[in-house]
Amino acid sequence: MLWKKFAKDWLYFSRKERLGIYIMSALITLLWVLPVFFSTESDPIRPLNITAVQIDSLEHVLIKREKKEIKNFKQFAVKNKIEYTGYKEFNYPVAKKVEIIDINKADSIDFEKLPGIGEKLSARMVKYRERLGGYYKIEQLKEIYGMQDSNFIKFKHLIKVQTDFKPHQISINRASYSELRQHPYLSHVFVKSVLAYIKMHGFISGEDELFKIGSISKDEVMRVLPYLDFAQ
């Protein structure tokens, strides 16, 4: 029949061809079966003899060490006046060196660089410095109208007063009432009491005599003392 002749022509293999097919089939079967016998499917950590408890313990140690390093870095940053900016790329702490502002040399633009300080407040900081004759400590900025403690806390580590700075001083024995009253720390009662004492005793030689004036408190004297010149 025709189909038998067709099958014989296309499906007939010689002895060598049949041998090749047997060998190829054996190789394919072998490659498919071998991975089953040699596969262990064991935990990749087992060859290292590390248990789950040891892994947890090691993780705890590493986390504790990392926290300690971050704490040490923050302390270093505060001590060296470096701004700590937390974690960046690769989870390493980074630091950015910041400029410390001298509040007796800064202008309004410099003050605006401080966190929480806007245009109006920076202008007041400059104006109040002029009225005082200079700042002798950074805490005096809290006396400025509109300056809140929350603002001051944000930037107090970014400002300074030079240790050798001397504010402008007023000659307490020579100045008139109007000249003395221009200073923010010299109230009407303070000035009147000082002028009355000078009229009676001739002059004030130093802070000890100011403490003797009953109408003036010790706190008032200590506050204004850096701005007074007792020269006769």
Could you please describe the fold and organization of this structure?
The chain is mainly α and 232 residues long. Among the domains are: 101-160, Orthogonal Bundle (DNA polymerase, domain 1); 170-229. The protein is 52% helix and 8% strand. The chain is built from ten helices and six strands; from the N terminus they run αααβββαααββααααβ. The protein has helices at residues 2-11, 15-38, 52-79, 108-112, 119-132, 149-155, 177-181, 188-201, 207-212, 218-224, and strands spanning 82-87, 93-97, 101-102, 159-160, 170-171, 228-229. The protein has a two-stranded antiparallel sheet with strand order 1-2. A hairpin with a 5-residue loop joins strand 1 (82-87) and strand 2. The chain starts with a helix and ends with a strand. The model is unreliable at 87-95 (pLDDT under 50).
**Which parts are unreliable, with pLDDT below 50 for 5 consecutive residues or more?**
87-95
Beta-strand proportion: 5-15%
CATH C-level class of the domain at 101-160 is: Mainly Alpha
Morphology: rod-shaped
CATH topology category name of the domain at 101-160: DNA polymerase, domain 1
Q: How would you state the average pLDDT, rounded?
A: 80
Helix content: 40-55%
CATH architecture of the domain at 101-160: Orthogonal Bundle
Strand segment count: 6
Order of helices and strands: HHHEEEHHHEEHHHHE
| Largest sheet report | 2 strands, antiparallel
Helix/strand/pairing category? mainly alpha
CATH superfamily of the domain at 101-160: Photosystem II 12 kDa extrinsic protein
Q: Helix segment count?
A: 10
In spatial order, strands of the major sheet run: 1-2
